[in-house]
UniProtKB/TrEMBL annotation:
UniProt protein name: Molybdate ABC transporter substrate-binding protein
Family: Belongs to the bacterial solute-binding protein ModA family.
PANTHER family according to UniProt: MOLYBDATE-BINDING PERIPLASMIC PROTEIN, MOLYBDATE-BINDING PROTEIN MODA
GO CC aspect terms: outer membrane-bounded periplasmic space
SUPFAM superfamilies according to UniProt: Periplasmic binding protein-like II
Naturally occurring in which organism (per UniProt): Vibrio cyclitrophicus ZF270
Amino acid sequence: MKKLVTLVTLAFATSLSSTHLFAAEKLRVYAASSMTNAVNLLVEEFEKNHSVDVIPVYASTSSLVRQIERGAPADIFISANDKWMTYLVDRQLVYSDNVTNLCENELVLISPKEVPVSLNLSKGEQWAKLLTNERLAVGNTMSVPAGIYAKEALEALGVWDDVKARLAPSNNVRMALALVERSEAKLGIVYKTDALLSKEVNLVSTFPSDLHTPIRYPVAKLSDKVVAEEFYIFLRSKNAKNTLNSFGFEVR
């Protein structure tokens, strides 16, 4: 009987040890949808050297901010623009000391692969002609960073009035890309990094950076977890910078 109790106790202890071993700590990374491919690879690289289960959550920056406002358990947040990060800082949901700039991007005009397009960005009549009975895919110009940047650029070029009635707004930049890939929109405005990932679109033109607010991706650490600090530091490492550069992001 004593031997049986010892064996049961040992088995129970072993079970607890195994459960602890395999119950890896979770790290939730909320990131703008345009960061999907790059962050997936960064997560893979980080997990190789850390006993942690990284759970990435992708959506438009505005959607992620609303989730964080409502108490979503984010440990790391990567925004597609400064304003939304400032929004969280102003509401004391993020400490400014825990925010740094991760990388930058460019804004480009794309068309479906089988529809080559030539366009002078500053010629409103050319935009109007190309978009006759057609659509321009963009992120929502009121809330999605890529859409906000697009509107700024089009206004600076003086062609906003020529295109605003032909917009096909979407909830995030990847949806805008998909509309052009499926030829449901003749033109689209997305990030350079999105255009580089797709084999189904042509890169028509790059918008000069002085036409819109700088496209920066600030990253914030939202929790006090040790692993959150480790991931936050990892994102600024040489290996992480090389990964981001490989996807077309600019890391200074």
